[in-house]
Amino acid sequence: MYFRPGTHKEVGLSFNPIKAIISPRPIGWISSRGEDGSVNLAPYSYFNAISEQPPMVIFSSAPHSNSSHKDSIRNVIETKEFVVNIVSSALGNAMNITSGNLPYGESEFAAANLEMADCKTVSVPRVATSPAALECKLWKVVELPKPDNANAGIMVIGTITGIYIDDKIIKDGKVDVTAFQPLARLGYMDYAQITKVFSMKRPDVK
Ligand SMILES: Cc1cc2nc3c(=O)[nH]c(=O)nc-3n(C[C@H](O)[C@H](O)[C@H](O)COP(=O)(O)O)c2cc1C
User: Fold this and answer.
1) 62: in domain
2) pLDDT value at position 65?
3) Nearest Cα to 115, choosing from 130, 103, 104, 134?
4) What is the pTM of this model?
């Protein structure tokens, strides 16, 4: 099978398979604050680390159906800060609730019954029960190319300024992902849990 983007139905695929091919993807559970002080929380799986030095991450919003930005994007543009909360398997349902399209200013923390905790380098709260959280300052907002007759997607690039890790997930000086089993996004409505880990040494080429 071979096809060009947007023509999957012509080859018999009912749904666009790109997200299933590029999987698993980590979920950036983004908390942010608007100029009016309101707090927002939403999952973004177009999310990843892009650099170690300086430590930087991106997340990106699909083109919104109306002309306004998604709330997370609006807030980051307004206050230039955000937090990436890590989604453990135990927090999967709560994460899913926060993907609901609540009116601007209505808190997904309250909707999902999640407690907030203060951060140290940003005024945005983190999810208190997330096993780890990355405090970020906005570096750049990039408008992606506009699809025909639609709004542009927006990519946010941020620099990590503070890192919270729950001491309970540290084992022998390392983060033990099996202790919280991060949730990953696959295609369609599917998810995966990381439950088993193995190591591979890199080749020692002289
Ligand atoms: C696991 C998961 C991952 C998602 N990833 C994205 C994403 O990468 N980009 C996006 O625009 N929407 C994504 N969504 C949908 C948003 O979470 C949803 O549109 C949400 O209402 C946006 O919230 P906001 O307007 O408060 O920012 C995702 C939803 C789920 C459940």
Assistant:
1) yes
2) 66
3) 130
4) 0.97
